[in-house]
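Now read this:
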Amino acid sequence: MTPTFTAAFAGFRLGFGLILAIGGQNALVLRQGIRREHVLATVVFCALSDALLIALGVSGFGLISTRVPWLAPALKWGGVAFLTWYGIRAFRSALGPGGGLTPGLGPAVPLRQTLAMVAAMTWLNPHVWLDTVVLLGSVSSNYAGERLAFAIGATTASFLFFFSLGFGARLLAPLFAKPGSWRVLDGIVGLTMLSLALGLAIG
């Protein structure tokens, strides 16, 4: 594999693994998909927001790290710790009790209000900033000269995930109303996060 492909695949794998975690933003996209309400606007907003944050992390991190030498290793090991915690939490969720996600159906919500909710879930969520700007930005430093490919890979994962979730939600709704389906997904997320933590630690 070429260095460019390796960097792009690493960005895709990490971006997809991080975004799989079930949270407020994903639940909102899923709900909009089930309702078939403002789906395109919702997924485009989420994907473009991720793209902007990823670009900020990948481009800004290199500049900052050259001026603060200790920042790169600090963020690297912070990323290892965060990914490990993320993986353990996913496994605990997979093994613990829980219920399916059942977004409520109700009156139609105006587009402006929908986008305001999505914006709040995206830009006011510290985990989104940690995942995209800090974590992806720090990991991209391992691919000197191929940061653009890494960013493209992570951005592609974001677009693929949000469009699949938004437009595929109606088909997945019966399946993901079952707690067992979420446990399987959490298990996959846990494995992905721990493998990424190991790769970052020994990289």
Remarks:
- DSSP finds eight helices and no strands in the chain.
- The radius of gyration is 17 Å.
- The mean pLDDT is 81.
- The first helix runs from residue 3 to 19.
